[in-house]
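ok here's Troponin T, cardiac muscle isoforms-like:
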Amino acid sequence: NKMSETEEVVEEEAQFMTNIAAPKIPDGEKVDFDDIHRKRQEKDLSELQSLIEAHFVQRKKEEEELIALVNRIEKRRAERAEQQRVRTEREKERQARQAEEKERKELEEQQKKMNDDAKKKKALTNMTQQFSAGQKTKRGGKKQTEREKKKKILADRKKPLTVDHLNEDKLKEKANEMWQWLMGLEAEKFDLSEKLKRQKYDCCRRITSIHFVKFSVPKVAARARWAAA
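and the structure:
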């Protein structure tokens, strides 16, 4: 670079010197060639110094422009980085809001399902309790009716046995009558026993059905919701 700058200066000096006209020598006067040569050198040196100064001024200006350009580039790069950072932060905030909204909706749906399940369970429990209370009332009324019926039957059947005035044939007839009556009681006892067994079986089956409905309906509903989801 230094060599090229020197060559440029020499070339500019050569071009400059070619334009210089030869000094006129007055007639009849003594010419001082040393003075002319010295003045010419001083003039050339002054012009060369001016060219060098102009060159460095231009170079300084170019360097300043280059520095300003670099500063503008760095500033623009920093602005773009800041804009990108702001966009990234906004995107993160947006995604966070979406995640919070999604979680809130899921919690609301879960809470709603839990409330619906609790309401259904409560309604089923109330129905079961009402059914059980009705069955108890029916059984209580039925027991009272059966008890009164048995008392009446026993009162009707509990007759005084008077055989002192009967002869042998009448006694045999009375004994046969009592035997038939006893057989009738045994048959009635058997029928009542079978009826009681049947009632117990029906009660057990109803209780089993109630428990099945109570515990299976929520599971079926849960499966249906899962399948729908």
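+1. Residues 151 and 157 are 10 Å apart (CA to CA).
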